[in-house]
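Design request, tokens follow.
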């Protein structure tokens, strides 16, 4: 059974899947967040996040990643 096109993949491994963007334009999650904050895209207006909000978003994305972090010590610093 195939997934509907509207279903988005999980962000759980996002910190382990660089480069980012459909052209591989961004090296880090911070680059992606900065781009969407300042420039946006044809589908997303610039988010205009403060530096603190950008940092918080990157930290959140890393926290739900399979990359080891204090909240998920069982990952043993491995990207899977």
């Amino acid at each position: 059974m195939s997934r509907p096109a509207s279903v988005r993949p999980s962000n759980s491994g996002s910190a382990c899947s660089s480069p980012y963007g459909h052209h591989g334009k961004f090296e880090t999650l911070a680059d992606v967040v900065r781009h969407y904050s300042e420039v946006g895209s044809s589908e997303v207006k610039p988010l205009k996040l403060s530096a603190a909000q950008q940092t918080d978003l990157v930290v959140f994305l890393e926290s739900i990643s399979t990359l080891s972090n204090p909240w998920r010590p069982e990952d043993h610093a491995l990207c899977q």
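Comment from the thread starter after seeing the answer: thanks! The radius of gyration is 14 Å.
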